[in-house]
Amino acid sequence: MATTLPKVDVVIVGMGWVGGILAAELTKAGHTVVGLERGKSRGTQDYYHVHDELRYAARYELMQDLSKETVTFRNTEKIRALPMRSYGSFLLGDGLGGAGVHWNGQYYRFLPYDFEIYSKTVERYGKSKIPEGMAIRDWGITYDQLEPYFVKYEQMSGISGDKQLPDNIGKMSVPYATPPMKKTPGMKLFEESATKLGYHPYVIPSANLTQDYTNPDGIERAACQYCGYCERFGCEYGAKADPVVTVMPVAQKSGKFELRTHANVTGIIHDGKKASGVKYVNTPTGEEFIQTADVVILSGYVFTNVRLLLLSKLGKPYDPKTDTGSVGRNYAYQVNGASTAAFYEDREFNLAMGAGALGSSFDDFNGDNFDHSSLNFIHGANIRFTQTGLRPIQYQALPADTPKWGKGFKQATIHNANRVLAVSGQGASMPYRHHYLDLDPEYKDALGLPLIRMTFDFEDQDKELVKFIAQKTKDIADGMGATKTEMHNVIRQYNIVPYQSTHNTGGTIMGSDPKTSVVNNYLQMWDAENVFICGASNFAHNSGYNPTATVGALSYRTAEGVIKYLQKGGSLV
């Protein structure tokens, strides 16, 4: 029998970026908060002298244990879903800080077009531009409404970037907190080539500090060392903004926050209209607890947020056959595959050095920044060159005609180790009626609860987008002075391997219609006014950008909404 614990103002499920921001903001406002994290605690000291590619990049030490909980996957409803047994397509973070610890730090605000994608697409091209089955919709919020919250995230985390960005991305009311990162020779070649073609490159905004920085909460952090160990790693310098070194200390120093690790939440307790708390298992002991609270916040990863709602029977599950219900709707991924490798014979680069967000990019073919009238897709991609730090175990950039084994393979691997620069496109992913998340009827986790099931495949929209963007990457690479270039312009059926992107979105989408969305623009649940759900699960589609900036901005707006709710109650919109 579960032990019921004393009520607090707020209980937060998941202590990554969202949970950390909310804990910091709510405790600063004087509210008592309990944060539940199913993984272990961690701090910067855990990453001292652990530049270990095998341990972290290849064996996924910071990731969720798939033998205890995973995701099942199928391309269509006609196929039996099977569990992801080992990591491939995406990586699920685990422990304090979540995916906010092992991210690269690439920081992009979603475009103004993204938040009003349906209206703006129809306005420019007509309804016929949207193919049958595509489920794009406006988000119920505009870029201008969200802009002040982007600023809050940027000042808290110390985002570095150019003071003046191109006009084809959203306007900024306040410059980034710190100057942009250094330009490598590869970045300069990319920018020179793009500029000659009439495009508008800029240094990628970065959560890797370029100088020592003290944020508005008084948190001090040191500058990036360009060591090349960002993605899949924690930062030993604290230079990469993550929840553990930015917002968690603020909550912990308030005296109003309690963190409980190894707390695996299994359900939300509710009466159909309001929640009274959550039930969780202390995994080391197997004990069950009920944490009562005035407000329940789900701030986990996409799959976690959706799964908890479905397990708790809170909200109406999405039914693709009737296109009714909202929980699980509008799952989207991201479209990669458009790229060109530039091979050099007479020039070498120091590619082992870098940082997760070190690079340059442009958006001339992102969003609706270009005319789609004659194209068989909407939206686009951010085109970029990045120098994240290439390590020996997982990096072998080889020409297509390289032998697959033996002496020739070894010679080509050594020869090309520092002679290949890659230009790539990160493309937007549009939702479709038949792409969704639900509970798997067959497979269960270590606690006996159904796993989340993903139904997804690449559509003609994605394939056409990749063909178009790949040609643009080749145009850039051809102008970078390489001996030869090789273009990749084809994607086929989606598979759970190999690694592609951890940018999953959707399932608890925001909007203005309770019939087709789960939350309003404060991320307050339509079906339970004291439940707030925040994260990339709120995205109604996925952009050509990394999602963290928009998740961060939504987190600050959600904190504002929770404070208003605790004061007055009722619906916030």
From TrEMBL:
Organism encoding this protein: Cohnella abietis
Q: Is Ion transport tagged as a keyword?
A: no
So which domain of life are we looking at?
Bacteria
**Which Gene3D superfamilies does this UniProt record tie to the protein?**
FAD/NAD(P)-binding domain (3.50.50.60)
Family according to the record:
Belongs to the GMC oxidoreductase family.
- The residues covered by the Glucose-methanol-choline oxidoreductase N-terminal domain are 141-332
Q: Name one GO molecular function term.
A: oxidoreductase activity, acting on CH-OH group of donors
This protein's UniProt keywords: FAD, Flavoprotein, Oxidoreductase
Its recorded name reads GMC family oxidoreductase
Q: Where is the signal peptide?
A: none
Record domain Glucose-methanol-choline oxidoreductase C-terminal: where: 437-554
